[in-house]
Amino acid sequence: MLIKEYRVILPMTVEEYHCAQLFSVAEASKQETGGGEGIMVVHNEPFDVKANKWPPKTPLLGNRANGQYTYKIYKLQNKVPKFIRLLAPSGSLEMTETAWNAYPYCRTVVENPGYMKENFFIKIESMHVQDAGTQQNVHQLPPDLLSKREVVYIDIANDKLYSNSDYKREFDPKLFKSEKTDRGPLVNNPWWQNYNGPVMCAYKLVTCEFKWFGLQTRVESFIHTMERRIFTNFHRQVFCLTDQWFGLTMEDIRQLEERTKRDLDSQIASGQVRGTKAED
């Protein structure tokens, strides 16, 4: 089992990020869906632990009792490395994502119930705080887990991208300047050094386990490499879409999510495979 805490520093308030993240997830989902692969949204609705509506298996941090529940299915045949595709039987590379968004805390669990079952999971616990990543144990880990945790800072403007194909000029924080907020470009290294605007941190604690003799270490390392890649690319996009999400309300976001669900249902059965592919 590998545990890493990714600290993503962002030029916005915690309140703004709530809408910014949801807006960008909807946009990114459309970019990753097509040709029989991508994301299907099965459930997206409020949850209430006290009412026994979509309760998580274990208590949420701070005993948070309500928020938004989502359940998604990911079809990933071309989005995993070749060595996994060769080992996994046809149709087994379908993942489920269950999420409880009790903002500013969120928990997401990715599983493979059809094949790996209890031998595989990725758990992402996110806490959003108005600081520059200075909290030492925001997830309240016990000493045994805290000693295993590795902290990784992500600088959306300066960190090297995983692949040249990940670079999109329109999502380059060193070039983008928001007309609505006057934020950017992010030119310092680190970008938040001497920055005059709001600064927040998304603390993302990622725990992954892949029980397969001879492959566990390699696959768990690959999962963390991909999580860092996803967090970096996604949050570059979040910032560079500022002028599209700034000023939206949560009602606007829910309407957008419903439209996106219909679009994804249509896209997944047509066209070509889109978005990020594994590099073998």
TrEMBL record:
Pfam families: IP_trans. GO terms for molecular function: phosphatidylcholine binding; phosphatidylcholine transporter activity; phosphatidylinositol binding; phosphatidylinositol transfer activity. InterPro entries: PI_transfer, PI_transfer_N, START-like_dom_sf. Residues 1-261 form the Phosphatidylinositol transfer protein N-terminal domain. One of its GO terms (cellular component) is cytoplasm. This is Phosphatidylinositol transfer protein N-terminal domain-containing protein. The lineage of its organism: Eukaryota, Metazoa, Spiralia, Lophotrochozoa, Platyhelminthes.
